[in-house]
Design goal:
One of its GO terms (molecular function) is zinc ion binding. This protein is of the alpha+beta class and 316 residues long. 28% of the residues lie in helices and 11% in strands. The N terminus is likely disordered.
Length: 316
């Protein structure tokens, strides 16, 4: 008798918490299923309240329900994982091939900038399991991994040197390109894309037309750079004017310490705040650290940890 086949959507077997295929699936009393580790983590956060809820329907349970493995659901999910890589996942023309697969190559879904390999979905899961907890930099699958790595330092080319107009690694910025103007490669890529979005002139074989197009592009580029700078300068001038209107600047600036004395003011120290290792003299205008305890009366304002004292007058 032929085996009946039922088409199912993998989304029906996704964990609502981690949004991946269920791992060690368990069902809770309301009927919803989760990865055992996912629902355990959720309920661990609710331990203090002693009331546990379903992340999906919000139904609450008390005491904490026991979690039992759903054997049938586990088998279904395992079969789904095995069929996840089907014939249409083989690498075709223009696709990046998995560099770990033997035999016919599957289409790569991610590339690792640490291992310098591209992985299909199955090999990617093994890679993540092998390097769990380690920071491996994954990117969209690319066949140009070597071009993204600094040949000298074997680091990711994630910095753009504006001075030399080239991508460099972080070590290059402190050695060969020290003191050069640099931005992140991502920022440079975004800026370049915004410039490329400018409407391009129609194609022409005329040399003069090509030259004119280049000049137009240069003018547009120059204008796009100048506009933000001009706006920033105008903003700074306006803010400075607002500050100048509110603040009265002195007509003369003291040139030396003698000139500064005209702004001096005699301060009287507050005896009630003086620490007991400090001695006040000359009508409480001079303070001396003695290292010996002074016979000051107890006062709630007195400093008792650090040798400090307050002024009676405001200094502002």
């Amino acid at each position: 008798m032929a085996e009946a086949r039922i088409s199912v959507d993998q989304k029906e077997f996704m964990c609502p918490v981690c949004l991946d295929l269920l791992k060690d699936p368990v069902a809770i009393p309301c009927g919803h299923s989760y990865c055992k580790s996912c629902i355990t983590d959720c309920w661990d956060q609710e331990d203090q309240k002693r009331v546990y809820s379903c992340p999906q329907c919000r139904q609450t349970f008390s005491p904490r329900p026991d979690l039992a493995r759903n054997t049938m659901l586990t088998e279904v999910v395992e079969k789904l994982k095995k069929t996840r890589i089907s014939a249409d996942c083989y690498a075709g023309a223009g696709d990046v091939q998995c560099e770990v697969c033997t035999g016919r190559k599957y289409r790569a879904v991610k590339s690792c900038l640490m291992c310098l390999n591209s992985y299909c979905q199955n090999q990617l899961e093994q890679h993540e399991s092998l390097f769990k907890g380690k920071k491996h930099n994954l990117t969209e699958a690319t066949g140009r991994l070597q071009e993204m790595i600094c040949q000298k330092h074997e680091k990711l080319l994630d910095v753009f040197c504006c001075t030399d107009q080239k991508c460099i690694c972080v070590l290059c910025t402190v050695i060969e390109h020290k003191n050069h103007e640099a931005v992140s490669a991502a920022a440079q890529r975004t800026e370049k894309q915004s410039f490329q979005s400018l409407s391009a002139p129609p194609e022409s074989t005329d040399v003069n037309d090509d030259l004119f197009s280049s000049l137009v592009s240069s003018d547009a580029l120059r204008e796009s750079v100048h506009q933000p700078r001009d706006k920033l300068e105008d903003f700074c001038k306006e803010e400075l004017k607002k500050i100048s209107d509110r603040v009265a600047f002195p007509n003369t600036v003291p040139r030396n310490s003698k000139d500064s004395l005209q702004y001096s003011h005699q301060l009287t120290l507050d005896l009630n705040t003086a620490h007991k290792l400090l001695r006040l003299s000359e009508s409480n205008r001079v303070i001396t650290y003695t290292g010996t305890v002074q016979s000051y009366p107890d006062h709630p304002d007195r400093f008792d940890v650090y040798p400090q004292v307050l002024c009676k007058e405001s200094v502002c």
